[in-house]
Amino acid sequence: MPSLKDLKNRIESVKSTRKITKAMQMVAAAKLRRAQEAAEEARPYAKRFNAVMAGLAASVGGSDSAPKLLRGTGSDQVQLLVVLTAERGLCGGFNSNIAKMARLKATELKAQGKTVKILTVGKKGRDQLKRDFENDFVGHVDLSEIKRLGYSNAQDIARDILNRFDAGEFDVATIFYSEFVNVVTQIPTAQQIIPASYDAAEEAEGGAVYDYEPSEEAILADLLPRGVATQIFSALLENGASEQGARMSAMDNATRNAGDMIDKLTIEFNRSRQAVITNELIEIISGAEAL
Amino acid sequence: MADTMQFDLVSPERSLASLQATAVQIPGAEGDMTAMPNHAPLITTLRPGVLKVESPEGTSEYVVTGGFAELGSEGLSVLAEKAIPVTEMTRAHLDDMIATARAAHDTAKENQHHTLVDDAAKLLADMEALGTHMSL
């Protein structure tokens, strides 16, 4: 049975925890709004880009002269998994869900006898995957110093991946990130970026026949690397919004739990206080009776 | 006949302009061109240069680099990796861009990749020409 003083200390400490989680929730809410805005502003670019690429890919894609980035290397032996996670924790299952998905995929690929290479972006993903796949890591991108994600960050990551592709280090690249639906729902997603797969359904309506300047092949060769950067950029932005959303609901839960705990502890505190008083009274009365 | 067309300028980070334009001068990879309403459908890549938009409300200019322009039946959309309004363009921006281009040039040279060296050299030259053109 904890003493009255212990209970009082417990209540105080839970109260300050509640203050912290409440503050984190509010910070996450403010950041979420900004992250959502950034994600929305980036959407028109990605949408137009994919529409044009789909058109180009449909007309050039089938031929043997198509660039390697579109056609693939003709093999899927070496797989690169690019795992995008957050730099910080305390955001519910956000990081774990992405890491879990990547882990399942890696295990599945290994069971099929494929070679798996892992590139992590964000500290948390690296920490979680390190135990199982330490020998498969080929690199890590640290974004902890960056306050506001820009397109250039995505470009740097894309350049790194493309250099590895040119050097023949892998055949297929897949990115893992979390798609933002709303504050309580984020869906871990895997998307293959190399060889590029553009959905023909996104093709621009009307089916107008475009003139290409320079040639279709040259444009495609110019745009495919940019496509990788664009996809990584939108994944990073989705991830950013998801992270803040997940943190917000996690901190909301934590704040509520702390409130419940305070209520419970307060009741316990009052009961023990009453018990102490009753005890003292009994002692006084029985003392008086004995006289 | 419609005398204006929808013009959109978007960069990966945000949408910069969306307006009705009468004519747009595009720095295409194979030379400048001016797009006017009812132009035949066309897709061209961009070289670093100045994009000039003429609309009934006046003209505006943007420095663009890396990306492409799509001329379709519904209008013109320019997707540029970097787009900065000319009024906000400073020497520092340009220096930054030139430094990036130069770095790309150097790595290409190291790797002995001939087509890449040519491309990077062209990009660098374009950037410098852009600076002279804008008298920065």
Global geometry of chain B: globular
According to CATH, the fold-level topology of the largest domain in chain A is Pyruvate Kinase, Chain: A, domain 1
Mean model confidence by pLDDT of chain A? 87
Residue runs with pLDDT of under 50 for 5 or more positions of chain B: none
Secondary-structure-derived class of chain A: alpha/beta
Radius of gyration of chain A: 28 Å
CATH architecture heading of the largest domain in chain B: Sandwich
Percent range for helical residues of chain B? Answer: 25-40%
Order of helices and strands of chain B: EEEEEEEEHH
Indicate the proportion of strand residues of chain A: 5-15%
Helix content of chain A: 55-70%
Q: Give the H and E element order of chain A.
A: HHEHEHEHEEEH
Low-confidence stretches of chain A: 201-206
User: What is the number of domains of chain B?
Assistant: 2
Q: Please tell me what the overall shape of chain A is.
A: elongated
Tell me the radius of gyration of chain B: 16 Å
Describe the model.
- The complex is a heterodimer of chains A (about 290) and B (about 140).
- Chain A is of the alpha/beta class and about 290 residues long.
- Chain A has 2 domains: about 60 residues, Helix Hairpins (Orthogonal Bundle); about 210 residues, Pyruvate Kinase, Chain: A, domain 1, CATH 3.40.1380.10.
- Chain A has 6 helices and 6 strands.
- In chain A, helix 5 crosses helix 6.
- The longest helix of chain A is centred in the last third of the chain and has 75 residues.
- Chain A is elongated, with a radius of gyration of 28 Å.
- About 0% of the residues of chain A have low confidence.
- Chain B has about 140 residues and is α+β, with helices and mostly antiparallel strands.
- Chain B has 2 domains: about 80 residues, ATP Synthase, domain 1 (Sandwich); about 45 residues.
- In chain B, strands 1, 2, 3, 4, 5, 6, 7 and 8 form an 8-stranded mixed beta sheet that branches.
- In chain B, helix 1 runs antiparallel to helix 2.
- At the A-B interface, helix 1, helix 5, strand 6 and helix 6 of A face strand 5, strand 7 and strand 8 of B.
- Strand 6 of chain A pairs parallel with strand 5 of chain B.
